[in-house]
Amino acid sequence: MTGAKGAGMASRRIRRRWVVRILFPVMILAAGWVGAQAWMIWTYDPGHKTVPSDAAIVLGAAVWGSEPSPVLRERIHHAVDLYRQGLVRKIIFTGGTGKGAGMAESEAAERYAGAIGVPKGDLLTESKSVITEENLRFALELGKTQGLRSYTIVSDPLHLKRSMRMAADLGMEADASAASTTVYRSWRTKVPFWLREVFFHVGYVITKPFRGP
């Protein structure tokens, strides 16, 4: 009995060693991959927008009551700057109604852009989306009904790596333009937003093969 028990314990120790030998390299590789994704998000730089496109797609952000939050407001300003420079012909605002908001993100953005001088005929909205992937998917569907083919995605710099990956997966002809007046500037605001983006970007990449088109 003692010999059998000792043999069993030895066998379990051997199995544990093999599990550790297999799992440890996998964990190291996974950590390295996540670290690489985090670095690419932090350093992603779309450069200055110089090539015209049919429309800017402004990714949604919070609305405070019926007014754009500072994050959304700066995205609107950047898209309007592109419009006034003649780099986009239309602006598509995205985003539905968030918790506690008085109106949809896209509607608040459209109203704000109209108030600062953009003709209503050049503003388009979709108000069904609640996440970034839906922002892009529904904007693309709307753009097709308007004969739009090329797009400039407007958001905060740390948001654009994930957004461009999603746009590519949707088959969208797009480039990116970062809001130059982003509110995420200090370490106190920038780091939490970056960590959030790492989490959602990694989650998107891992789950994408298991989801529908």
UniProtKB/TrEMBL annotation:
InterPro entries: Cell_Envelope_Assoc, DUF218, Rossmann-like_a/b/a_fold. GO terms for cellular component: plasma membrane. Gene3D superfamilies: HUPs. The lineage of its organism: Bacteria, Bacillati, Bacillota, Bacilli, Bacillales. PANTHER family: DUF218 DOMAIN-CONTAINING PROTEIN, INNER MEMBRANE PROTEIN, PROBABLE PERMEASE. It comes from the Bacteria. It comes from Paenibacillus mucilaginosus 3016. Keywords: Membrane, Transmembrane, Transmembrane helix. Residues 54-197 form the DUF218 domain. This is DUF218 domain-containing protein. The chain crosses the membrane at residues 18-42.
